[in-house]
Amino acid sequence: MTLEDFGWDESWTRQLAAMEDTQGIPGRVIAQHRSEYWIHTGYKEITARAAGRLYRDSSQQAELPVVGDWVLLDDADTEGIATIRNVMPRRSSFSRKATGKGTVEQVMAANLDTVWIVTTFGNDFNPPRLERYVSMVAESGAVPVIVLAKADLAENPDTQLDILKNRLTGVALRSVSTLAQIGLEPLKQYLKAGHTIGLLGSSGVGKSTLINHFAGREVLQTGEVREDGSGRHTTTHRELILLDTGGLLLDTPGMRELQLWNADESLEQSFSDIEELAASCRFSDCAHEAEPGCAVLAAIKSGDLAEERLLNFRKLAQELKYLHRKSDVRANMEEQRRWKAISKAQKRYNQEPGVKNSGKR
Hints:
Elements: H1 10-18, E1 25-33, E2 36-40, E3 45-50, H2 52-57, E4 70-74, E5 81-87, E6 93-97, E7 105-110, E8 114-120, H3 127-140, E9 143-149, H4 157-167, E10 172-175, E11 196-201, H5 207-215, E12 239-242, E13 248-251, H6 264-270, H7 272-278, H8 295-302, H9 307-351
Parallel strand pairs: 3-5, 8-9, 8-11, 9-10, 11-13
Antiparallel strand pairs: 1-2, 1-4, 2-3, 4-5, 6-7, 12-13
């Protein structure tokens, strides 16, 4: 194996040369288990931990290593564990708002080229959620592809495909079944040497089954299928799988809902049909609610635009606005805390014996 098998190319070489700190051995994070990382250097797989400096210097959790990152390593210690001394700048970064009340970015994976958004024709079929996924993948810098799995169990596949074609314009749609060997050949075009593909979707939609199929062996455990066609969630962590035929697949734990993070531009791209219609509205600040001369509402009335699509666009846009407001408040509070800490430190310094207060005579 070589670094090129894991996605290293000339642009990474140039990027490494441009970094201030180029010390260490380059490698790619292929798995993470709590505070330990599995890194492949092209000739061997080693265990590593992030240097304490990375925790101290990282103002955000998002700057710490994640699966898919390229990192620089120091030699292993006496226990055989290496140290990650630096994380190389990412080409793409798939993020969401971390769970909880705060406004913290959580990076799920890095340096993905393509993301297969896996769903099924059955109970998991949810166009609004797929629109959300497409927006997040596009914002990450990767290319989204919708993969509708378990096609052999579909009752009306053409109807559901038509719904997605109308709502997700410009996004590739693939209908597959690993059990019946349907539609798998077109997916092979993405399995190129050094090309990294992430799989995203709810629990039990068949992500691990797809990986096992293309790997040619059971590299990931799969759960039994229920009577309704849904599977049981088995993946508990993210892991990069190198295929013998070339390419890398990244399985992820099932996520039914993802909260947006900094997806303003991709939201406009994912809903480009609404943006194009809005350009013809009478008022430039049209909210598409009850204004006269609204081209968006006219398209809904004529049947050219689904009302559900507009409602989902509003929901996601409002979610982003709320996130930005919370982020601004959080940033202001952190700035206030920082200056309070500086002020307290200065007061303690002035009160120390031998320190002359220049304000007194």
